[in-house]
Amino acid sequence: MSEGAASSTWAGPLAGVRVMDFTRVLAGPAASLALADMGAEVFKIEPPGTGDETRSFPPMREGESHYYLAVNRGKKSIVVDLKSAEGLALVKDLAGRCDVLVENYRPGVMKRLGLGWEEMHHINPRLIYCSISGYGQTGPLRDRPSFDIVLQAMSGALSMNGEPGALPTKLGIPLGDLVGGINGPIGILSALYERERTGLGRHIDISLMDGLMGMLGYIAQLAFFNGCDPQRVGSQHPNLVPYGIFPAREGSIVIACLTPGFWSRICRSIGQEDLCNDPRFDTLEKRRDAREEVNAIVAAFTQRHTVADLVEIFTAHEVPHAPILGVTEALAQPQAVARGMVVETQHAALGPIPIVNRPIRFTDAEQPAPHAPPVLGQHTDAILAEVLDLSPERIAALRASAIVA
């Protein structure tokens, strides 16, 4: 769907909310992406020349990076030189007309630029200002650089991932960064709700390490209970058996047994109903303690069948299971198609391209396909004219002096 056609339908519940996006790479762009997905107008403010660093991350297609395309759909790009007094004045003027500011520089950088929380709050007391960083705005590590794998290590998450007796393995999805795309919007939406009562904005301090620690969930509570670090169990569960990846005749399959009822279904599905009430395996604790024996029984059955046969068998017995799909197969599976998780959009340089659709839907209120990620500076003139009310002559002068691009 073209950008013009998309703008004639419901943008989403955040329609009318304007966001200044000073983010780059992944954690911050994931947060502003969520806001754009829900209908906010996101102005991605990029430096001249290079723009967001990920615009140059290979592989590329006709000068456009796969990485940048992945987390910048639905946004508008404006190029402004923040190192110039005139460029700084432009974004401060824009701050007076926006609802939210999101940034993910190291603590202190925005303040040095003259765009810190105190100054922006003075310009626009209603502005909600969200800072996303590796370790947060306080603490002994606040100034240390961080990347996804570093955060996984520091949060405890990495220590649990991998096979027993082997080195820990980084999570395949960069959850250390992406947690900012979850907690950032939660904080922003909460502050928008609060602003309806108080009329004032708020500074939000999102630490990616805090976010991953928050996701430890029952794993952290287990450590509190027994005072020991949970050990790596690979794809298995520390307390639930059978739970994990089992061999098939061609490939492998996931099985997950969470309750006694599912244990009974597994026993019947593998043709060993007598195991349902076997005193060796009739509680969660007994199955956990007999992990190797239980897994061997299940594996002896699964490895005699193909993945397709096992899917049919386990579906018939309502056993929680899944074939292990590659990314391309996962995106093309019937469930993803039915949910419209891949859509086509029109990119300014690449033409029609497939992108992943929004993960949040609203019943009886369909949004159009997201706008394609912008090319660098694609919306500079439109934002200057339509939001800041600058004349064509003024915009031309700013371009001539390289304040904007």
Automatic annotation (TrEMBL):
* Keyword Thylakoid found: no
Q: What InterPro entries does the database record attribute to this sequence?
A: CoA-transferase_III_domain, CoA-Trfase_fam_III, CoA-Trfase_III_dom3_sf, CoA-Trfase_III_dom_1_sf
Its domain of life reads Bacteria
Q: Which Pfam families match?
A: CoA_transf_3
Keywords linked to the UniProt accession: Transferase
Molecular function as annotated in GO: CoA-transferase activity
Q: Do the record's keywords include Zinc?
A: no
- Record-given protein name: CoA transferase
UniProt source species? Novosphingobium silvae
